[in-house]
Amino acid sequence: MASVASPVARGVPPIRAGQGHSFLLRRLHSLSGIIPIGAFLLEHFISNAFATNGPRAYADQVKFLTGLPFVPILETVGIYIPLLYHALYGFYIWFRGESNVSDYPWAGNFMYAAQRWTGGIAFIYIAWHTYTMRFSGIHLLTNSQAAFHKVQMELQSPWAGAFYVIGITAASWHFAYGIYLFCAKWGITVSETSRKWMGRVCLVLALTLITIGWVTMAAFFKPQWKNIPEKLPPEQSVERSVH
Ligand code: HEM
Fold this sequence. Notes:
- The chain is an all-alpha fold.
- It has a single domain (22-242), classed as Fumarate reductase/succinate dehydrogenase, transmembrane subunit (3 helical TM bundles of succinate and fumarate reductases, Up-down Bundle), CATH 1.20.1300.10.
- The protein has helices at 22-34, 37-49, 55-66, 71-96, 99-102, 110-134, 147-154, 158-185, 192-219, 235-242.
- α1 (22-34) crosses α8, α4 runs antiparallel to α6 (110-134) and α8 runs antiparallel to α9 (192-219).
- The longest helix is centred in the last third of the chain and has 28 residues, at 158-185.
- The radius of gyration is 21 Å and the shape is elongated.
- The relative contact order is 0.13.
- The structure holds protoporphyrin IX containing FE (HEM).
- Protoporphyrin IX containing FE binds at residues 30, 33-34, 37-38, 41, 86-87, 90-91, 93-94, 101, 115-116, 119-120, 122-123, 171, 174-175, 178-179, 181-182, 185.
- Protoporphyrin IX containing FE is lined by residues 30, 33-34, 37-38, 41, 86-87, 90-91, 93-94, 101, 115-116, 119-120, 122-123, 171, 174-175, 178-179, 181-182, 185.
């Protein structure tokens, strides 16, 4: 029997106009994953990596961030609202299985499912992480010195540690593959070759972010920084313990 050519091109189709109000909402969902949420994720990984330079370097970084003007407005407009929109619309896309999504020729494949599951895991993790770090316990906005201690205390529980590893990994993977999806949907990568290369770049990014996240976590377990108190001791004693 003669084979019939598939009417649907292979790969991720661009978001097209003429899909009703969902065109704008989907574009917003897609864009919000990169700016501001993805940009914030990168900043967050870099800022936290200062923990690898020790408790004081970490405290200084937290002090810088919490000392920025209009922090609550920056958080609300730049993080909470976009993240909430992206997450809620993400769950809507996932559970409703909109027709244009379920038409994807790759709907059953692993990457498609992984993008949904990593988003869901990241959502639970981010909600818990934000609650424990920002809205309960020692208030870091007014006590940046206690940052290393607070994270260290949190990681005392193996359950919390495991949850951090899973959450960091899920968010890294979701963001990196999200860049691949974004480039395909916005017409940045059109040819098979460009998508293949973008796939490799995103894989390297995912592995880099996961590594940075895990190495950062490991800093809180270093023997020379064991039991860091809420109030840091005078500069010299901490710095000396680094070497
Ligand atoms: C760490 C926070 C997050 C970042 C940085 C992020 C980033 C991204 C990016 C860049 C994309 C690609 C955009 C596109 O499809 O064009 C994306 C897609 C997606 N995100 Fe997120 N996201 C985050 C959290 C979440 C959460 C909490 C959910 C909730 C389930 C979610 C659900 C989704 C879904 C379902 C897609 C795929 C959309 C599609 O295939 O049409 N994301 N994300």
